């Protein structure tokens, strides 16, 4: 060729195919996460009505708490200083951080913004606007079963 360029239709086809595929892959990599974000996942596990905990009742000592999964969300089993078992959602009602039990305060606490909840799940200090969702606790033999209230 006079201009020194290779005019190979197979090569041009390959380059067009490659660029088209790369653009498609790029678009997919951008659109897929956006679509996943916009379309909520099916309710599935989060709608679980009850769960048998993976630990025994006597493994939770007085004045302590244990996080467990209720469906796909965290929950907390608390044994009060008086020895009573109670369970709550562990999702803080402020900005959804996971709460924890504070033995030094004998209540539930959220580390994110210093939110405090009493042993009934009531928000008592800090920014959380609502109580924690409370659950029903049943001890069946050596198992703890936590259920949503009907
Ligand atoms: S997320 Fe719990 S206090 Fe802010």
What does this protein structure show overall?
- The chain is of the alpha+beta class and 150 residues long.
- 20% of the residues lie in helices and 32% in strands.
- The strands form two sheets. Strands 1-10-9-4-3-2 form a six-stranded antiparallel β-sheet, with no helix packed on it. A four-stranded antiparallel β-sheet has the order 5-6-7-8, with no helix packed on it.
- The radius of gyration is 27 Å and the shape is elongated.
- FE2/S2 (inorganic) cluster binds next to loops.
Fill in the keyword field for this structure.
2 domains, alpha+beta, binds FE2/S2 (inorganic) cluster, four-stranded antiparallel β-sheet, 150 residues, Rieske Iron-sulfur Protein, single chain, 20% helix
**Helicity, in percent?**
10-25%
Low-confidence region ranges: none
CATH homologous superfamily assignment of the largest domain: Rieske [2Fe-2S] iron-sulphur domain
In whole angstroms, how far apart are the ends?
82 Å
Give the ordered list of helices and strands: HEEEEEEEEEE
What is the CATH level 1 assignment of the largest domain? Mainly Beta
Mean pLDDT comes to 88
Please indicate the percent range of residues in DSSP E strands (runs of 2 or more).
25-35%
How many structural units, i.e. domains?
2
Structural class: alpha+beta
Instruction: Calculate Rg over CA atoms.
Output: 27 Å
Q: What does the overall shape look like?
A: elongated
Discrete helix count: 1
The CATH topology of the largest domain is Rieske Iron-sulfur Protein
Label the CATH architecture of the largest domain.
3-layer Sandwich
Ligand set: FE2/S2 (inorganic) cluster
């Amino acid at each position: 060729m006079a201009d020194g360029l290779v005019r190979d239709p197979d090569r041009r086809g390959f380059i067009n195919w490659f660029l088209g595929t790369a653009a498609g892959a790029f678009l997919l990599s951008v659109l897929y996460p956006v679509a996943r974000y916009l379309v909520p996942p099916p309710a599935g596990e989060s709608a679980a009505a009850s769960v048998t905990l993976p630990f025994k009742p006597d493994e939770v000592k007085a004045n302590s708490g244990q996080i467990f999964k209720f469906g796909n969300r965290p929950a907390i089993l608390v044994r009060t200083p008086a020895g009573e078992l109670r369970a709550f959602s562990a999702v803080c009602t402020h900005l959804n951080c996971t709460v924890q039990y504070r033995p030094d305060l004998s209540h539930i606490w959220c580390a994110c913004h210093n939110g405090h909840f009493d042993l009934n799940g009531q928000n008592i200090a800090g920014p959380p606007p609502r109580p924690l969702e409370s659950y029903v606790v049943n001890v069946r033999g050596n198992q703890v079963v936590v259920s949503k209230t009907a």
